[in-house]
Design brief:
Layout (H helix, E strand, L loop, with lengths): L9 E9 L4 H13 L4 E6 L3 E3 L10 E10 L3 H15 L14 E7 L4 E2 L4 E2 L8 H11 L11 H7 L8 E3 L2 H4 L5
Length: 181
């Protein structure tokens, strides 16, 4: 996708996950949809991980990844894009907060911006306590600095106690092949 030189691109990091249906296909669909959106260039994609559910644990395990994009979208426009993609795959929404879903997309970082509104908080408010967010981010850039606490995502990941509740298991490339077809 080409952009006029006059438009400035902002790097943003997204977390993506699914735990309903064909998780890999759901993620692939969301990534292709994101990449086809005007004003968004996918720059990097992490490995894919099988991860333990958080908060509400009586549900299927997730598959999670991280994506680095460059975008001309404002943070609010980007949120609208992500919510549109989520609604396309989850037309009835999530049954409840932290419940099962075909796709979940979150803005983790938007440049070095700090935003705290009723509808959008960046950096993601719980990212520093979630191995399923931090490990994939480390694949892309473990030296990425959190704009509020000044720690890198690598340092934040090292602070998490990895046990069964924070399990993050890399999937083999063969398991994720369909994402690119």
């Amino acid at each position: 996708m080409n952009f006029p030189d006059s438009l400035s691109l902002t790097p943003a990091f997204l977390s993506i996950g699914a735990n309903v249906g064909n998780k890999i296909a759901n993620i692939g669909l969301a990534i292709r949809r994101l990449g086809a959106t005007e004003g968004i260039i996918i720059e990097a994609l992490s490995k894919f991980y099988k991860t333990a559910p958080q908060n509400y644990t009586d549900q299927n395990w997730f598959v999670n990844a991280a994506i680095k994009i460059q975008t001309t979208c404002s943070p609010k426009q980007l949120l609208d894009v992500l919510q549109t993609i989520e609604k396309e795959q989850n037309p009835n929404g999530k049954p409840f907060r932290f419940g099962p879903r075909k796709i979940d997309l979150d803005i983790v970082f938007y440049g070095q911006r700090v935003i705290n509104t009723a509808t959008l908080v960046i950096p993601h408010p719980r990212m520093h306590e979630r191995a399923f967010v931090l490990k994939p981010l480390c694949d892309i850039d473990r030296n990425l600095v959190h704009p509020v606490n000044g720690l890198t995502v690598g340092e934040l990941f090292e602070q998490i106690k990895i046990d069964d509740s924070q399990a993050v298991i890399a999937l083999a490339k063969e398991e994720t092949r369909e994402i690119f077809y």
